[in-house]
Amino acid sequence: MRPRDALDMFRRKGGARCIEIGRLVQSYLDGTLDADATASVARHLDACRRCGLAADDYRRIKFALNRSIEPLPAESLLRLRAFAADLAAEHTTRE
Amino acid sequence: MSWGPFRFETTTIENGLETRPPLAFLPSNVPEMSAKEMEGFASFTGFCRREKNTEHPAASSEGVRPETLMADDMKPDVTESSPTEDSRRFTAIVAPELDMLLRAARSLSDNIQDAEDLVQDTLFRAFRSLDRFDGRHPRAWLLTIMRNADHNRHRRRRPTLLRHEETLNAEIDRRNPPSSSAEDVATRPMTAPWVTNALDGLSPRLRQVAHLVDVDGLTYDETAALLDIPAGTVMSRLHRARRQMRTRLERQPDFRSEQ
Predict the structure, then answer these.
(1) Which tens digit of pLDDT belongs to each residue from B135-156?
(2) Number of Cβ pairs closer than 8 Å across A and B?
(3) Among B56, B68, B86, B121, which would you mutate to test the A interface (most chain A Cβ atoms within 10 Å of its Cβ)?
(4) Which pLDDT does position B87 carry in this prediction?
(5) Are the beta carbons of A66 and B189 separated by less than 8 Å?
(6) Least CB–CB distance from A57: residue in B94, B190, B246
(7) Closest CA to B65 of B127, B18, B120
(8) Of the given ranges (B59-63, B91-95, B122-126), which has the lowest mean pLDDT?
(9) What is the value of ipTM here, to two decimals?
(10) What distance in Å separates the CA atoms of residue A95 and residue B83, rounded to the nearest whole number?
């Protein structure tokens, strides 16, 4: 890569801090960062429009996926509850 | 090392026990057991596999037992006679996790019946190994048991130890099929079509992890336990999945307008 291309890419991505935050933003949204890193990412997302937009996109994707959950068949759950209860009961009656 | 579990993993049925030939890594000097010894040892260790829905009282040959369809207060209360500590512990561990187990099993299965069978197998194994469980991370413990039960299920169906990458991907694809057909999208509650399309556009492995974490709500560690991969791999696959989805979605006009 030519130095000019590297510089263009660097500018497009918003600088070193944005690249670093870009690596952390998903973990930040998942709540898996420590307190210091969380505060640092939050400060940057407030200040940087580009990273703030990216975080909004990831939030939107997570939220939409979370809503897309299909309900479980009630009769399957009923059968499994009965199965678990019978397992425990069988053990009890054996004692 | 205990050889017991491996001795009984064959696909033949002998004396009502479903058994399986010893794996290739078993030493050749381990003597074969007679059918009678096998039956005795199986009942002693509990490592025999039940024929489907025939042996366990919770699964009758008719499928659903009548009392499972009754309201809770109408069921015969078999636990009335002072349940043991183990039984109470088992119920306390398992009861809150049944939904999660069925969701996870659904990601690993072709259909809901297979998923239900997998959960039953998991519960049975969990109950058998309850005394070895230290009480920490019950979800991860149950998911690890489910993974082993799932491995056994697939070994029984396809007894091959070497699996090509493409075969594996095809299998994940089959279990987590893209659901972008009009009917599927319509039956999914509150699902934005753009997110279904983006999810379906992922490779099978990325889609599976994204589904388990972002749709089914498992943590990285729980997903790692279920798929038998490191938590770091779960995280990197998940992040890659979301990045690819975002790249795809940026081109869609309704993506940023949806709330």
Answers:
(1) 888 999 999 999 999 988 877 6
(2) 152
(3) B68
(4) 85
(5) no
(6) B246
(7) B120
(8) B59-63
(9) 0.76
(10) 9
Contact A54, B242 (CB under 8 A): no
Tell me what the mean pLDDT of segment B188-202 comes to.
Answer: 74
A93 and B81 within 8 Å at the Cβ level: the answer is yes
pTM listed for this prediction: 0.62
Q: Which residues of A touch B87 (CB under 8 A)?
A: 88-89, 91-92
* Neighbouring residues of B221: CB distance < 8 A, sequence distance ≥ 6: B137, B140, B231
d(CA B97, CA B63): 23
* CA atoms of B101 and B123, how far apart (whole Å): 9
DSSP single-letter state for residue B95? G
Helix axes A16-30, A35-47, angle to 10 degrees: 120
Q: Which of A26, A67, A84 sits opposite B190 (nearest CB)?
A: A67
Structure tokens at A86: 């019978």
Q: pLDDT higher for A91 or B147?
A: B147
Task: Tell me the backbone φ, ψ of residue B85, rounded to 5 degrees.
Answer: -60, -40
What stretches of chain A show up as alpha helix (H) in DSSP? 3-13, 16-30, 35-47, 49-67, 74-94
Give the residue on A whose Cα is nearest the Cα of B85.
A92
Q: Which chain B residue shows the shortest CA-CA distance from A61?
A: B195
pLDDT at B238 over 90: yes
Give per-residue pLDDT as tens, B19-67: 444 433 333 444 444 454 444 444 433 333 333 333 444 433 334 343 4
Neighbour-count burial for A26-45, b at 16+ CB within 10 Å, e otherwise: bbbbbeebeeeeeebbeebb
> b/e for A66-93, b at 16 or more Cβ within 10 A?
eebbeebeeebbebbbbbbbbbbbebbe
- Which residues is B17 bridged to in the sheet? B14
